[in-house]
Specification:
By secondary structure, this protein is mainly α. Helix content is 62%, strand content 3%. The protein is built from 6 helices and 2 strands; from the N terminus they run αααββααα. A two-stranded antiparallel sheet has the order 1-2. A hairpin with a 5-residue loop joins strand 1 and strand 2. The radius of gyration is 23 Å and the shape is elongated. It starts with 16 loop residues before the first helix and ends with a helix.
């Protein structure tokens, strides 16, 4: 007699629900096996960069096909989107790798991850304020030169 388990299989949650909300995956979960070139095209990262991310531990475990080709899934795409956001914050790669290691270690590291992200957020807010100040200076200079040009045209 053959026993068949008919209980529904719940897919694992996305690596980062904040990044994956509203993001469109090229394929639905369960049919999400991408080659490195497909991931490169989807993310804008080069294949060598993706290999390097895996080599330094920035990527979670990437499955391999029977022929040894990397096979990425939607969780990997979500993770890469999150890494892209971390890159935009200016976070050093070494810190991103440390964060990835905390993720691999599991839920016990939530407080440490939260602290890292709070510190990063503080740095981003500070940088935004600096950029807003810089923008105000640029606007002032642009107005100054526009006024100076109008004045010289009247003379």
């Amino acid at each position: 007699m053959t026993v068949i388990d008919s209980s529904p299989v719940k897919p694992p949650p996305p690596v980062d629900v904040c990044v994956s909300v509203g993001s469109a995956h090229p394929r639905p979960d369960g049919q999400d096996r991408y080659t490195i070139s497909e991931v490169a095209a989807h993310t804008g990262l080069s294949a060598p960069t993706l290999r390097w991310y895996e080599q330094i531990g920035l990527m979670p475990h990437v499955e391999r096909s029977h022929s040894g080709q990397r096979r990425f899934d939607n969780r990997a795409l979500d993770w890469l989107a999150f890494v892209g956001k971390l890159r935009l914050t200016g976070m050093p790669v070494a810190d991103m790798v440390s964060f990835a290691e905390l993720v691999r270690r599991g839920a016990d590291t939530f407080p440490e991850r939260q602290e890292i992200l709070q510190q990063t957020r503080h740095e981003v807010v500070t940088r935004i304020a600096e950029l807003q100040d810089t923008l105000a200076v640029l606007d002032c200079k642009i107005d100054f030169y526009a006024d100076a040009r109008r004045a010289s045209e009247r003379d």
